[in-house]
Design brief:
alpha+beta; 4-stranded antiparallel beta sheet
Length: 181
Protein backbone atom coordinates (compact mmCIF):
# COMPACT_ATOMS: atom_id res chain seq x y z
CA UNK A 1 0.00 0.00 0.00
CA UNK A 2 1.42 3.38 -1.00
CA UNK A 3 1.99 6.04 1.62
CA UNK A 4 -0.70 8.72 1.45
CA UNK A 5 0.48 12.11 0.21
CA UNK A 6 -0.03 14.47 3.12
CA UNK A 7 1.91 17.37 1.61
CA UNK A 8 -1.26 19.30 0.80
CA UNK A 9 -3.14 18.47 3.98
CA UNK A 10 -3.85 21.36 6.33
CA UNK A 11 -1.67 20.66 9.42
CA UNK A 12 -4.58 21.61 11.67
CA UNK A 13 -6.51 18.59 10.39
CA UNK A 14 -3.78 15.96 10.85
CA UNK A 15 -4.70 14.88 14.41
CA UNK A 16 -8.47 15.01 13.81
CA UNK A 17 -8.00 12.82 10.69
CA UNK A 18 -5.92 10.32 12.66
CA UNK A 19 -8.46 10.25 15.47
CA UNK A 20 -11.31 9.69 13.01
CA UNK A 21 -9.40 6.86 11.32
CA UNK A 22 -8.86 5.08 14.66
CA UNK A 23 -12.37 5.54 16.04
CA UNK A 24 -14.64 2.54 16.41
CA UNK A 25 -17.41 3.30 18.91
CA UNK A 26 -19.24 0.06 18.13
CA UNK A 27 -16.22 -2.05 19.02
CA UNK A 28 -15.93 -0.26 22.39
CA UNK A 29 -19.30 -1.84 23.30
CA UNK A 30 -18.35 -5.36 22.22
CA UNK A 31 -17.55 -8.35 24.43
CA UNK A 32 -14.26 -8.75 22.52
CA UNK A 33 -13.14 -5.28 23.62
CA UNK A 34 -13.93 -6.18 27.24
CA UNK A 35 -11.98 -9.44 26.90
CA UNK A 36 -8.97 -7.60 25.48
CA UNK A 37 -8.73 -5.46 28.60
CA UNK A 38 -7.82 -8.52 30.68
CA UNK A 39 -5.51 -10.23 28.19
CA UNK A 40 -2.12 -9.03 29.45
CA UNK A 41 -0.37 -10.57 32.43
CA UNK A 42 -0.45 -7.97 35.22
CA UNK A 43 1.01 -10.11 38.00
CA UNK A 44 4.03 -8.43 39.53
CA UNK A 45 3.63 -5.19 37.59
CA UNK A 46 4.33 -1.84 39.22
CA UNK A 47 0.99 -0.41 40.41
CA UNK A 48 1.68 2.92 38.69
CA UNK A 49 2.21 1.32 35.26
CA UNK A 50 -1.08 -0.54 35.75
CA UNK A 51 -2.83 2.69 36.69
CA UNK A 52 -1.26 4.44 33.69
CA UNK A 53 -2.40 1.67 31.31
CA UNK A 54 -5.96 1.77 32.64
CA UNK A 55 -6.16 5.55 32.42
CA UNK A 56 -4.71 5.66 28.90
CA UNK A 57 -7.23 3.05 27.71
CA UNK A 58 -10.08 5.05 29.29
CA UNK A 59 -8.86 8.39 27.91
CA UNK A 60 -8.65 6.98 24.38
CA UNK A 61 -12.08 5.36 24.80
CA UNK A 62 -13.42 8.85 25.52
CA UNK A 63 -12.18 9.71 22.02
CA UNK A 64 -13.93 6.53 20.77
CA UNK A 65 -10.56 4.89 20.07
CA UNK A 66 -10.44 1.26 21.25
CA UNK A 67 -7.04 0.13 22.56
CA UNK A 68 -5.84 -2.46 25.04
CA UNK A 69 -2.72 -3.44 26.98
CA UNK A 70 -1.18 -6.10 24.74
CA UNK A 71 1.76 -6.83 27.05
CA UNK A 72 2.55 -5.75 30.59
CA UNK A 73 4.60 -8.44 32.32
CA UNK A 74 6.73 -11.02 30.52
CA UNK A 75 8.35 -13.97 32.23
CA UNK A 76 12.02 -14.61 31.57
CA UNK A 77 11.03 -17.32 29.07
CA UNK A 78 8.61 -15.00 27.28
CA UNK A 79 11.23 -12.25 27.18
CA UNK A 80 13.83 -14.65 25.78
CA UNK A 81 11.36 -15.66 23.06
CA UNK A 82 10.58 -12.00 22.26
CA UNK A 83 14.31 -11.27 22.04
CA UNK A 84 14.99 -14.24 19.74
CA UNK A 85 12.02 -13.29 17.51
CA UNK A 86 13.36 -9.74 17.25
CA UNK A 87 10.35 -8.05 18.84
CA UNK A 88 12.42 -6.88 21.83
CA UNK A 89 15.92 -5.46 22.12
CA UNK A 90 16.33 -6.58 25.73
CA UNK A 91 17.91 -9.95 26.39
CA UNK A 92 16.77 -11.34 29.74
CA UNK A 93 20.27 -12.70 30.44
CA UNK A 94 21.17 -9.71 32.63
CA UNK A 95 17.86 -9.91 34.52
CA UNK A 96 16.84 -6.48 33.21
CA UNK A 97 13.97 -5.99 30.80
CA UNK A 98 11.22 -3.38 31.20
CA UNK A 99 8.35 -5.83 30.82
CA UNK A 100 9.58 -7.59 33.93
CA UNK A 101 7.46 -5.12 35.95
CA UNK A 102 7.69 -1.56 34.59
CA UNK A 103 6.27 -1.37 31.05
CA UNK A 104 3.14 -1.71 29.00
CA UNK A 105 2.50 -2.05 25.28
CA UNK A 106 -0.80 -0.45 24.27
CA UNK A 107 -2.16 -1.35 20.82
CA UNK A 108 -5.30 -0.60 18.82
CA UNK A 109 -8.07 -3.12 19.37
CA UNK A 110 -8.78 -3.76 15.69
CA UNK A 111 -5.70 -2.39 13.86
CA UNK A 112 -3.09 -3.68 16.36
CA UNK A 113 0.21 -1.91 15.53
CA UNK A 114 -1.56 0.12 12.81
CA UNK A 115 0.90 -0.77 10.09
CA UNK A 116 -1.82 -2.36 7.92
CA UNK A 117 -3.68 -0.22 7.20
CA UNK A 118 -1.21 2.54 7.81
CA UNK A 119 -2.92 5.39 9.61
CA UNK A 120 -0.81 8.55 9.31
CA UNK A 121 -0.10 10.22 12.67
CA UNK A 122 -2.11 7.66 14.65
CA UNK A 123 0.82 6.89 16.95
CA UNK A 124 1.47 10.62 17.36
CA UNK A 125 -2.07 10.98 18.72
CA UNK A 126 -1.65 8.05 21.10
CA UNK A 127 1.76 9.36 22.19
CA UNK A 128 0.32 12.80 22.88
CA UNK A 129 -2.62 11.42 24.85
CA UNK A 130 -0.36 9.07 26.81
CA UNK A 131 1.99 11.87 27.74
CA UNK A 132 -0.96 13.96 28.93
CA UNK A 133 -2.22 11.04 31.04
CA UNK A 134 1.24 10.66 32.61
CA UNK A 135 1.43 14.39 33.36
CA UNK A 136 -2.03 14.30 34.96
CA UNK A 137 -0.81 11.46 37.19
CA UNK A 138 2.51 13.12 38.03
CA UNK A 139 4.16 10.03 36.53
CA UNK A 140 7.43 10.01 34.62
CA UNK A 141 7.28 7.64 31.67
CA UNK A 142 9.26 7.10 28.51
CA UNK A 143 7.34 6.57 25.28
CA UNK A 144 8.80 4.18 22.70
CA UNK A 145 7.71 6.58 19.96
CA UNK A 146 10.51 8.86 21.20
CA UNK A 147 13.15 6.11 20.98
CA UNK A 148 15.98 6.70 18.50
CA UNK A 149 15.65 5.56 14.88
CA UNK A 150 15.88 1.80 14.62
CA UNK A 151 14.37 1.33 18.07
CA UNK A 152 11.06 3.15 17.42
CA UNK A 153 8.36 1.29 19.38
CA UNK A 154 5.27 3.50 19.64
CA UNK A 155 3.15 0.92 21.46
CA UNK A 156 5.66 0.85 24.34
CA UNK A 157 5.54 2.86 27.57
CA UNK A 158 7.90 2.36 30.49
CA UNK A 159 8.56 3.96 33.86
CA UNK A 160 11.48 6.37 33.78
CA UNK A 161 14.43 4.87 35.67
CA UNK A 162 12.99 1.35 35.87
CA UNK A 163 16.49 -0.19 35.66
CA UNK A 164 17.24 1.41 39.02
CA UNK A 165 14.18 0.01 40.81
CA UNK A 166 13.99 -3.07 42.92
CA UNK A 167 11.43 -5.23 41.06
CA UNK A 168 10.10 -6.63 44.34
CA UNK A 169 9.62 -3.39 46.29
CA UNK A 170 9.58 -0.86 43.40
CA UNK A 171 11.95 1.33 45.42
CA UNK A 172 14.67 3.26 43.60
CA UNK A 173 18.27 2.57 44.56
CA UNK A 174 20.00 5.34 46.48
CA UNK A 175 22.46 5.90 43.60
CA UNK A 176 19.58 6.73 41.26
CA UNK A 177 17.99 9.18 43.65
CA UNK A 178 21.16 11.09 44.51
CA UNK A 179 22.33 11.32 40.89
CA UNK A 180 25.25 8.88 41.04
CA UNK A 181 23.66 6.52 38.51
Amino acid sequence: MAEPDLSRVDPATIFPRAIAAMQNPGFLKSPRYQEQQHRANREGAHPRILEFADKLVKRLAMLQIPVFPHCIVRTETEQASAFVRGVSWDSPKDGLWPHRFAAVDIIHSTYAWMDKPRIPHAWDVIGHVGKQVAISMGLKVVWGGDFPPGKYDPAHWELLGWKHMDPETFVFTSGYLDGRV
